[in-house]
């Protein structure tokens, strides 16, 4: 058995012996309510607990408020209207001996809202079989814990790296937040490469989709035409628009995305009607049509599409579907942004971390790595479009993200810790393995 094989065997042995530590830490983080409330949030207590754990691990760790970062509000990716009082980020570093490449694991601590339908307390984690249930277990406290456990593993095995490893836990990612990630970049927390542990089912994503959440409003007139008044019901116009959106989603599904990461995509680019609103909701009865009808929609797009282009795509298709134009009397939808536009982003195929992670995925799972564009949008664009640090996405398996019964697969977390630990070594470089050999000799004894 050569040195690499011995080290890999030691990593696997450590992971098998420390699953309880991993599940305990993940369960502790799930117990904190870190739901993103769009404008504000309650991440502080969970971040304090994580900060203490990273200090206990032996990393250099600190808490900081995004509002205290010089240049935060002036950053080109900053999005206004949020409250960051008592919402600190966590930044931690394991310093290397020097001469190696640095690696940053960037996770978000906030979760989506508690969806209707939970039959258990979403903040009371429990384990059934190989699944750990709880809000945020899959998206994305599980991946955050895996990155911390990978560092703990290498530290306890006595590994000395040449390059630095950083772990950050940011606030306000859900619902198009991204300002927590922006604060880290404005602060200067950069690295030679970034891994975002969003849930990927152990696939490797070098690209992410973009998306927009709009409120689309149709105007009309109301009343009863006793004297021949013209009445236009905006709900009928909105219904026509919704039928068009359903057809447009199907049309887009027949088209391939941009090469190389989406050219063979079999996934549908979602267009989701998330809410409808019309009429006087405070009135006990309505006997006339509404004056306005609002249709909230989430629309995803591929990298390379901006917000104006995506809106124009919808408007042009809508006119074609209806066989007329807004200038000719077709009801004109008004688009209002509800969150920031999330641009899609990607890294080049020759990005050097790609083959390292693909190789480690194959070594740890026994199957070729799935390397493709992600089926979701996230804050990777902040790295790929606004910083020198390029980001790849690799996280655990699980299910029910943003839904009742969210869970993470614990076997996949074990595998992810192994992938991360081996990738850290191969990316950052080993400085010395003397103590590793001593630990192995003690284990054999």
UniProtKB/TrEMBL annotation:
Keywords (A to Z) from UniProt: Hydrolase, Zinc
Molecular function (Gene Ontology), one example: hydrolase activity
Pfam families listed in its UniProt record: Peptidase_M20
Protein's UniProt name: M20/M25/M40 family metallo-hydrolase
Organism: Cohnella faecalis
Keyword Hydrolase appears in the UniProt entry: yes
Top-level taxonomy: Bacteria, Bacillati, Bacillota, Bacilli, Bacillales
């Amino acid at each position: 058995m050569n040195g690499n094989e011995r080290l890999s065997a030691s990593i696997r042995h450590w992971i098998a012996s420390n699953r309880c530590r991993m599940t305990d830490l993940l369960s502790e983080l799930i117990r904190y309510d870190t739901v993103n409330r769009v404008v504000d949030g309650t991440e502080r207590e969970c971040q304090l607990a994580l900060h203490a754990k990273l200090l206990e691990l032996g990393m250099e760790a600190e808490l900081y408020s995004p509002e205290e970062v010089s240049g935060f509000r002036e950053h080109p990716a900053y999005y206004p209207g949020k409250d960051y009082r008592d919402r600190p980020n966590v930044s931690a570093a394991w310093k290397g001996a020097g001469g190696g490449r640095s690696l940053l694991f960037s996770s978000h601590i906030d979760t989506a809202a508690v969806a209707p339908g939970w039959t258990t307390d979403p903040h009371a984690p429990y384990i059934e079989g190989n699944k750990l249930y709880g809000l945020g277990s899959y998206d994305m406290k599980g991946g955050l814990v895996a990155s911390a456990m990978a560092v703990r593993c290498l530290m306890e095995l006595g590994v000395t790296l040449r390059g630095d490893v950083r772990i950050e836990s940011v606030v306000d990612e859900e619902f198009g937040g991204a300002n927590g990630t922006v604060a880290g970049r404005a602060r200067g927390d950069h690295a030679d490469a970034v891994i975002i542990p969003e849930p990927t089912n152990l696939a490797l994503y070098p690209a992410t989709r973009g998306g927009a959440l709009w409120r689309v409003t149709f105007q009309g007139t109301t009343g009863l035409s006793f004297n021949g008044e013209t009445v236009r019901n905006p709900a009928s116009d909105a219904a026509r628009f919704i039928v068009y959106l359903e057809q447009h989603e199907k049309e887009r599904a027949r088209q391939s995305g941009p090469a190389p990461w989406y050219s063979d995509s079999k996934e549908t680019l979602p267009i989701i009607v998330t809410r409808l609103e019309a009429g006087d909701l405070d009135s006990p009865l309505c006997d006339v049509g509404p004056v306005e009808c609002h249709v909230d929609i989430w629309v995803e797009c591929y990298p390379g599409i901006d917000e104006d282009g995506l809106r124009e795509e919808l408007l042009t298709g809508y006119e074609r579907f209806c066989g007329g134009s807004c200038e000719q009397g077709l009801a004109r939808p008004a688009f209002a942004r509800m969150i920031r536009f999330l641009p899609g982003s990607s890294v080049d195929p020759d990005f050097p971390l790609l083959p390292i992670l693909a190789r480690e995925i194959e070594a740890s799972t026994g199957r070729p790595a799935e390397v493709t564009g992600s089926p979701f949008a996230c804050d990777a664009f902040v790295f790929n479009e606004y910083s020198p640090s390029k980001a790849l996405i690799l996280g655990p398996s699980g299910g029910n993200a943003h839904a009742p019964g969210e869970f993470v697969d614990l076997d996949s977390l074990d595998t992810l810790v192994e992938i991360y630990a081996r990738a850290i070594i191969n990316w950052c470089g080993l400085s010395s393995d003397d103590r590793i050999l001593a630990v192995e000799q003690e284990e054999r004894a």
